[in-house]
Design brief:
Layout lengths: L1 E7 L2 E8 L7 H13 L6 E8 L18 E5 L7 H14 L4 E5 L7 H5 L7 E2 L5 E2 L1 E3 L2 E5 L14 H13 L8 E5 L6 H9 L4 E6 L3 H16 L4 E6 L4 E2 L6 E2 L6 H9 L3 E4 L4 H9 L3 H4 L4 H21 L17
Parallel strand pairs: 2-3, 4-10, 4-11, 5-9, 5-10, 11-12, 12-15
Antiparallel strand pairs: 1-2, 6-7, 8-9, 13-14
Helix pairs in contact: 2-10, 4-5
């Protein structure tokens, strides 16, 4: 991690390279370095400067999205559990931490990302050679079929058409250099999930569920699918975990409690967090400003930042060789 050490008149500057700008240990590392170096004789002050070089996993099919270092699928077994809410706030939190981020809305039949990200600063466009330039929302590159159909228009396609569209979004879009491409998937284990895993090497998947058993059962099936296509599951997010009254603070567990945590424990996965059912999360999605951006100091925004940091850390563990063995990690148990 140490890139350079400089000393001038007793003042020490140490440049450290992180594996992600969303590193959750940044402050702890800086404090440890300042404390250790500060004990040395003649040291009058210590400055710690961070940079980041996000790791990527090399492998087959890298001719598609060559500039994208990590592809993160946001998935669930059933609809209505808040995948798009998690996807938009995860992307916003990663961008807020300093990463280069894009969102691919792969929910062809129910694209909601354009609504949830609001009016773009830069609208999508057709570039040279008929390539697609992504829209830019809040500094995040976004591509969705919702940009190219009128509101309220039903898309009635069979599987091959969905596959062709995904292939176009992956091959004909000028994504450029990204640290993380967040893919918002439709529910279930259908054509879109299979096409995505065939077209590109998905780095990892984040599973979203609500606490009740009927949601957990479907998530288990979705996790089995990711295992079959050899995509690591990075962790589980329990959305709509409880309702917290904004007036009196009363907590009501509408959809039961703890199902996501129990699922993660049974599967040996990281439990990423419990996201409450709050008006601010809903209104942020409707207004096109994710709560991470609309209310960055709120507890739920800080929770999404924590989830983003854990996901970024998990990706670094997968992508970087173990310093002891030189082999890349195949499991995420080190994160637990």
């Amino acid at each position: 991690m140490v890139r350079e050490v400089g000393v001038e008149n007793g003042k020490v500057r140490i440049d450290l390279k992180l594996t992600t700008p969303a590193c959750p240990s940044r402050d702890a590392i800086a404090a440890s370095v300042r404390e250790a170096v500060g004990r040395l004789a003649g040291v009058a002050g210590v400055e710690v400067v961070f940079s980041a070089d996000v790791a990527r996993r090399l492998g087959p099919q890298r001719e598609r999205l060559p500039g994208v270092r990590n592809i993160v699928a946001i998935a669930a077994g059933k609809g209505g559990v808040g995948k798009s809410t998690v996807a938009t706030n995860l992307a916003a939190a990663l961008h807020q931490q300093g990463a280069r981020v894009g969102i691919l809305d792969a929910d062809v039949f129910g694209p909601s990302i354009p609504q949830m990200m609001g009016n773009p600063e830069v609208p999508p466009d057709i570039g040279a050679g008929q390539t697609i330039k992504p829209a830019v929302h809040h500094g995040i590159q976004v591509v969705s079929v919702g940009f190219f159909v009128e509101r309220g228009t039903a898309i009635i396609w069979r599987g091959p058409m969905v596959h062709k569209l995904l292939q176009q979004f992956l091959e004909d879009v000028e994504w450029g250099e990204l640290d993380y491409l967040v893919v918002d998937l439709p529910p279930g284990t259908g054509d879109t999930q299979l096409s995505l895993s065939q077209l590109i090497p998905v780095t990892g998947a984040v599973m979203v569920t609500t606490p009740q058993e009927v949601s957990i059962l479907d998530v288990e099936k979705a996790m089995a699918m990711w295992k079959k296509v050899q995509v690591p599951v990075l962790g589980v997010v329990e959305n709509m975990s409880y309702y917290l009254c904004p007036s009196c603070g009363h907590r009501d567990e509408i959809f039961s409690r703890g199902g996501g945590r129990r699922l993660a424990e049974r599967e040996g996965l990281r439990f990423l967090g419990e996201v409450p059912l709050l008006p601010g999360v809903r209104s942020g999605g409707d207004a096109g400003i994710p709560i991470v951006l609309a209310e960055p100091k709120s507890p739920v925004a800080e929770l999404f930042v924590s989830i983003a940091q854990q996901v970024a850390c998990a990706l670094s563990v997968l992508n970087l060789p173990d310093p002891g063995t030189g082999k890349r990690s195949s499991r995420l148990s080190v994160l637990k």
